[in-house]
Amino acid sequence: MRPERLIYTFVSYAAHYDATWGRGVATDGIERTADLAHRHGIPVTWIVNAGSVPALEDRIREWHDAYGDDVILQTPFFVEDAGMSKEKWKRAVERDWAVVAKAFSWAKTKVAGRGKIYNEAIEALEELGFEGMWGYCWEQVWWDGITHKGIPWGSWYVDGRRFKAPHPGRGQVVAFEWTARDLHATIHSGSPVIYSTDPDDVYRAGLCTGENIEYWKHVFQEYLSNTEHNEQVYFLQQQEGHEMEYTDRFAVFDPGQVEANAGMLDRFFAYITSFPITLTTVPNAVALYKAKNETTSPSYMLVRDSGVRPDVNDYTLALGGTGVGPWPDTFLYYDRDCQMSFVRGDMRPRLMRSYVGQWNMEKEFDQDIPQVFVADYRKTERRIEMKIEIGHFPPMPFGLTYWDALEGFDVEACAEGVEARIIGGELVFLRFDLTGEPRTIRLSLARKEAAR
């Protein structure tokens, strides 16, 4: 593992609300959240709006000086508040950011936050000089009015004209997800809200309690283990400040759940900070991403079943039930052109999404998958060889996996135009493009000593 490659950020909503479920600024919950994170040396990225800045600016300035806390802007809703007018929304964001910039002179990297995202919103952020957008929800459908199914997980350059697709080159705005998901359980169950790093969700689902965070430890270890074959692995966790208090202002959850949230976060912060990971804020993570990546960085994630199962209750049944596994080991991949998932033993992807030429953001970008044939397969103790054949198929980005005990093997030879990479000593991943013509790929693996 290369734990320094794991970029951990903790984000907390600290906005002013005037809603049926709460009014004002949740200063009690915000201070409690800050205390939990700071005692473990974790800087907090606060999601503020123009209404909460006056109530919080002194606290946040102190926390910035002492712990490195930072801020991003909760934008108005594009539809509900701006009536889908790009210019009206843009003016409101510009006005609200001016409040943030005046209160926090050190807030130079402009990052917006909102789960409901649209093409026009990303375009407006680009025009206003914003560099990040927090609130993306991998695989999510309907929940909180957010349907983002089809997007990549983690962080990637957003295409301003296609808010669900990576930019084909170097974009201006870097995507950040609402909160990290259990990639393995999510892709198999279709329940990203249940299998997540959100305290309220895992508590209600029975995956964690205030005293037991074994499920979260597994999710974190999955991301950590994948630092071995990724230059950067982004792990963002979020908890709303107003869900960390039970007062006259905010009583979203009962006192027992608030206490459980605090217990989970305290234990999780203690656990992750026992590893030499990179702790930072979202604005700093934007700078790290842009410094490292000219285009959207490919993500290679080999993930496994946690063995922890959710309860059957009103929460896990809300969207028609939650799959519980067990499920096989799975390899997930994305780059600026596509996203794929592979189950252990399968050569063809189970899920194939192409972003190339896609313009309808109401779709999920799923593609038909060609049949694959293997011939001339030969395996000895020191060498593995095969010929892979694919017939006529429309042009698109594509990939294949070969699963085997590959510890100690290297890729000796592969067809031109194919990236071949061994992942975790368990599979070879082949990334290439289909052109419309039949394709033959010869792959040769050899033990390192034999290769020399």
Overview of the molecule:
The protein is α/β, with parallel strands linked by helices and 452 residues long. 25% of the residues lie in helices and 28% in strands. Helix 2 links the parallel strand 4 and strand 5. Helix 1 runs parallel beside helix 8 and helix 3 crosses helix 4. The mean pLDDT is 97.
Short description:
The chain contains ten helices and 23 strands. By secondary structure, it is α/β, with parallel strands linked by helices. Strands 1, 4, 5, 6, 7, 10, 11 and 12 form an eight-stranded parallel sheet that branches. It has a four-stranded antiparallel sheet with strand order 13-14-15-16.
- Biggest sheet details: 8 strands, parallel
Structural class: alpha/beta
Shape: globular
**First CA to last CA: what distance?**
26 Å
Number of strands: 23
Mean pLDDT: 97
Low-confidence stretches: none
Beta-strand level of the residues, as a percent range?
25-35%
What radius of gyration results from the CA coordinates? Answer: 23 Å
- The total count of helices amounts to 10
- Helix proportion of residues, in percent? 25-40%
